[in-house]
Amino acid sequence: MQRRRERGIRMNFQEEMKQTFLRVASGEVEPEDWEAWWNGNRLKLEETLNRGDRGRMMPASWRANYYWMAKTQSGVAYYFHAQGRPVKVSGYYEDKMQEEEMRDRQKAMEGYYKDTASARQRWEAYLEAHPTSPVVFDWKGLLGTPVGQKTAEEFPYKKARTTEQWKECGKELKFRLKENLQAKISPVTKAYGMKKAGPKTFVREKNGLVSRIQFIGYFRGGGYEAMSYYLCPIYAIQYGILGLPGHISQGENFQRMQKDWGVIQYGMEAVDAAMVERINQKFDDILIFLAAGVLPEWQRIDSLETYFAEERRDYLKAAETGPKDPRTNRPMWNLDSRGKKDPWRADDYLFGVWDLLIGKETEGYAHLEECVRHNSDYMKNLLKEFPGACNDPRDDMAVMYRNAQLFLGTKEILDAEERRHKIQETYEEVCRFMRYYHGLTKKTERD
What is the largest CA-CA distance in the chain? Predict the structure, then answer.
């Protein structure tokens, strides 16, 4: 009698359990209710379910939210599938998860802006005292299908299998990239005073600063592997700590732009109507990243003094690390070098030359000495194999090293006035070559 009663209890619970699982599959159980039901029946569940099913439905790190409820639903679907009774699952938890994540991320970003408010206010106050002319341009009108876009081709295949198909896909992909580049990127960069320095490169020089955007070709053929973008003094290379605030350089628009980048990189699929639409959307993401963040931020910096302003440096420091991602509990971005010096000592070169230009010679020469000392062994070996590396724009370190040597050489001049004159002369000579390096002018030779 006792065994019969226990068997009946088990059978009743199994029926209750399956009905609860079916309700989860249909999206009818809220996270708190699921947690309460599971905890209230934990011992029975351990007897009824195997370890794998328990782990899939209720992982150790489970929390009462829709992200984890979607995981539970997936575990429930697996349970029924393994029993030969596949069930249809509702998209309710996925939809609620998206809403929940957007809400949590917005709350986290609000906290980030609050934490960085003090540094941002000092930077904004500096900008108010050093105003620049804002650019008024309706870039949003460029979003969507490019005006006059050619009708998509029809292909008898989806994946390229032969050499001829691969060539055909690559050719069509490049055409679509050029189409979007001309329709979306060219107009917005032109509005900000940038000019073309090649079919995929846009540059601008103003008050000792250079801004540059370049789409880098994929080395195996196809489309664009990446997009390089930077603002720096003309005398400098593109690597340095004075970049963009983290929420611009690594924030939501950046993440959206990076996602599914392969659609404009690999030329392995037929560029049919669906693919053309995806390419259009990806260039929309790139346009938003540039026009809603990067270019307006650059526009506010129109002099070397503003570029090196202490208020800007403090703000960039405050914005290095993003708020914690609600899902992973890790920073959304982290540009903090944690006290480690950059491996090339590019910042020593960057600040060393600036210190010389503003008369802080002791600090400037100390920075330059560190840059040259750190890279000397590497450069000796490099120049043995490639004697012209210091004049090759493709070798950033060699170019920087040669520039640092030239500025450091002025230290040997004892007369202060003569030394100041030589520093300025060296600066002008270095800038003449660096205009070629950045793509502002045609090839420039130097000794």
Answer: 110
